[in-house]
TrEMBL record:
InterPro entries xrefs: CA_dom (IPR001148), CA_dom_sf (IPR036398), Carbonic_anhydrase_a-class (IPR023561), Carbonic_anhydrase_a-class_CS (IPR018338)
Family assignment from sequence similarity: Belongs to the alpha-carbonic anhydrase family.
Keyword flag Metal-binding: yes
Protein name listed in UniProt: Carbonic anhydrase
GO cellular component annotations of the record: cytoplasm
Length: 264
């Protein structure tokens, strides 16, 4: 049985047993109070420098899909509230079993059906992602809400690739590369200090959560829930989801006095 997951026996309420950081005071995600953000002033716009073919492979992690970057420099983001340049490491997504849940961050108590995370690391002060991941401010994650609507053309490439990686630990090249810029809505965002939303839940993330959602279709959500949490040579787990990735989100964590800034 996996050490962590999203079932009754492996879900977020159990993570602290093996990952003590999950009990910290700067945990993510959070519920964002849209009326109480401290306005960010005199900040430069966020600036993106991504390669259109930045993500060349996709893997089934057993808790969802993850796009893997290739090459020496798949692209970077800087500006805004970021103190450094941050290089793209991977992209993944969270969703739920119904259309009323799925995003990790919530806004005024409201959840979206999904949330995409673009994970970056500080490439000015550290040589690798593994070095940066444990350092305060070593990571920046861009969070994008997904609302039910039209088919998402960039995620369509991901959905099509899932047919090649139905089971855990399967990896496949992307026949059509995903352009990270196509996943971002741009515009206003919230910013706060938090953590990885999955174990080991290290509190090293400078979060940027965009206010404007992108869309995802009902059909696309249905396809995501068909992913398997077990490897081809393993038996189907006897859990409530019957070995499918029906949901993979962590609920909001206490703010513990942290401030949330907003850029309009």
């Amino acid at each position: 049985m996996p050490v962590w997951g999203y079932t009754k026996t492996t879900g977020p309420h159990t993570w602290a047993v093996h990952f003590p950081a999950a009990c910290g005071t700067k945990q993510s995600p959070i519920d964002i109070d849209s009326g109480r953000g401290e306005e960010l002033t005199d900040v430069a716009p966020l600036s993106y420098h991504y390669r259109e073919d930045a993500c060349g492979a996709i893997t089934n992690t057993g808790v969802g899909w993850k796009l893997l970057t290739g090459g020496d420099n798949p692209g970077e983001v800087e500006g805004g509230p970021l103190p450094s340049r941050y290089r793209l490491e991977q992209i993944h997504m969270h969703w739920g079993g119904t259309e009323q849940e799925g995003s990790e961050h919530t806004v005024d108590g409201k959840a979206y059906p999904g949330e995409v995370h673009l994970v970056h690391w500080d490439c000015e002060n550290y040589a690798t992602f593994d070095e940066a991941v444990s350092k305060p401010g070593g990571l920046t994650v861009l969070g994008v809400f997904l609302e039910l609507g039209e088919e998402n053309s960039e995620l369509k490439k991901v959905i099509e690739a899932l047919q090649k990686i139905p089971h855990k630990d399967m990896t496949s090249p992307m026949s059509t590369a995903v352009n990270p810029l196509g996943l971002l809505p741009g515009g206003a965002y919230w910013n706060y200090d938090g953590s990885l939303t999955t174990p080991p839940c290290l509190e090293t993330v400078n979060w940027v959560v965009f206010k404007t959602p992108k869309t995802i279709s009902q059909e696309q959500l249905n396809e995501l829930r068909k992913m398997r949490t077990y490897a081809p040579d393993e038996s189907e787990p006897k859990d409530e989801f019957k070995g499918q990735v029906i949901q993979n989100f962590r609920p909001p964590m206490p703010l513990c006095g942290r401030g949330v800034k907003e850029c309009c």
